[in-house]
Amino acid sequence: MIDIFAKHAALRTAYEGLTAVSPRNPFEVVIERPLSATVGLIEGRETLLFGTNNYLGLSQSSRAAEAAIETARTMGVGTTGSRIANGTFGLHQRLEKRLASFFGRKHCMVFSTGYQANLGTISALVNKDDVLLLDADSHASIYDGAKLSGAQVIRFRHNDPVDLEKRLARLKDHPGAKLIIAEGIYSMTGNVAPLDKFVDIKTRHGAYLMADEAHSFGVLGEHGRGVAEMQGCEDGIDFIVGTFSKSLGTVGGYCVTDHDGVDLMRLCSRPYMFTASLPPEIIAATLAALDDMEARPELRVKLQENAARLHAGLKAAGLQTGEHVSPVVAVTLENIPQAVGFWNALLENGVYVNLSLPPATPDNRPLLRCSVMAAHSAEEIDKATAVFKAVAEHFQA
Amino acid sequence: MTDSVAGISGMIIEKLLANPKVPRDINGNSKIVEDLAFDSLAVMNFVMEIEDELDVSVPLDKLADIRTINDLAACLHTLKASQA
User: Fold this and answer.
1) I need a labelling partner for A127 at 20 to 30 A (CA). Which of A46, A161, A210, A366 fits?
2) pTM to 2 decimals?
3) Out of B39, B48, B83, whose CB is closest to A157?
4) How far is CA A111 from CA A79, A84, A185, A237, in A?
């Protein structure tokens, strides 16, 4: 009998090599419970949370919690069905209308997760006769959506409009539709995409453009509509995809657009059709969090201040970070054993960040990925950067 | 030099050898993943460099069937020919 797990031998070796040198398993960190948006109990210790994507701190919104409790009491805790069968409640339509209005778009589709929003949108928009042009550093959900679609996939160099244009020019005689996909803020590095430049290119080459604003929704732009709003190019983006699981603190995803053809996506997008829809209490919490986000623009101002403070603090500590100041700040290290040691020391000293390892990172180098929140105080950020500095000095000694 | 499969294969080997981590004894039959210890991302990034050299784009699905340097050269040659 063939060992069905034999294919994972190399993965097992890498995993065992990693866990052998790490006092704790980096893939099994348990936040026993959050004490606030910024502090959680880990290994019985109060730990500063700098790796949660909870940019506005709204996972702890009392308005959202109350809305969820009230809705669970009146509507129950689940829909037990898919959107095209028995899983569409009035609340789903209300959320779709609310998001379409927030983005100033004609249409919105809501998905059960952000991952499914990419899978469901990409796989419904293109097929084997079409071409997808993906930023090389795209999230796994974009690559998986591309695979599910069957379209030809061509990667262009990360954030490089010249490279994108060169690849589009090579496709000038291709008869299929061309869809360019880029993210607003890149989840691993915090890099911001030049969406305005991509709009110019897609217009010249007759292509469509989709932006995944998962990490920039609620974060950038005067109203929190993301990088496209910040760069003044929203009209040129055909499809905006995003998630509720970052700035809004709940779970679920969406696609907004002005293209009327999107209505048919409800009848051909398999990740939309063949899964249970979002539970009503999650929709209610998401709507309330959206109200919170709109009513408190000062959260975005505070978030930018905190992002700049963390970025400057880590740079001053002599650490290698990206150039973009955004709520995701990645510290690049040289090798995996160093990164594992550094990450463990941070956690033991009360700071939780994400340990990100190749091949999920660019350039084959490990990252300590930090995400900052509007809810962090200046003291919490300074404490985290001081711990980073002390650990870095320890490793250099 | 790059209008034949052998020429493209030679160019790929030359590019690979510029990386000091690549074994010195590679040839056209070397397996990219097993012999060069490239993971999937490294393969995709390396192919990007070759694409620029030949002014051609390789769709990702084509990479699934490529095992050796010669396989990659043959794929690039076909794509280049279809573009002409």
Assistant:
1) A161
2) 0.94
3) B48
4) 14, 12, 21, 20
Mutate to test the interface with A, among B60, B79, B80, B83 (most CBs of A within 10 A): B60
Calpha distance A206→A241 (Å, rounded): 21
Chain A positions touching chain B (beta carbons under 8 Å): 131, 136, 146, 152-155, 157, 167, 170-171, 358-359, 364
What tens-digit pLDDT sequence spans chain A (397 residues)? 999 999 999 889 989 988 898 999 999 999 999 999 999 999 999 999 999 999 999 999 999 999 999 999 999 999 999 999 999 999 999 999 999 999 999 999 999 999 999 999 999 999 999 999 999 999 999 999 999 999 999 999 999 999 999 999 999 999 999 999 999 999 888 899 999 999 999 999 999 999 999 999 999 999 999 999 999 999 999 999 999 999 999 999 999 999 999 999 999 999 999 999 999 999 999 999 999 999 999 999 999 999 999 999 999 999 999 888 889 999 999 888 999 999 999 999 999 999 998 877 877 789 999 999 999 999 999 999 999 999 999 887 6
Number of helices and strands in chain B (H, E): 4, 0
**CATH no., domain A79-278:** 3.40.640.10
Domain ranges, ordered by start, for chain A: 6-60+297-396, 79-278
CATH of domain A6-60+297-396: 3.90.1150.10
Strands A354-356 vs A367-371: parallel, antiparallel or unpaired? antiparallel
Listed residue (A196, A260, A262, A205) closest to A234, CA to CA: A196
Mutate to test the interface with A, among B36, B46, B57 (most CBs of A within 10 A): B57
Distance CA A190, CA A216 (A): 10
| CATH code for the domain defined by B5-83 | 1.10.1200.10
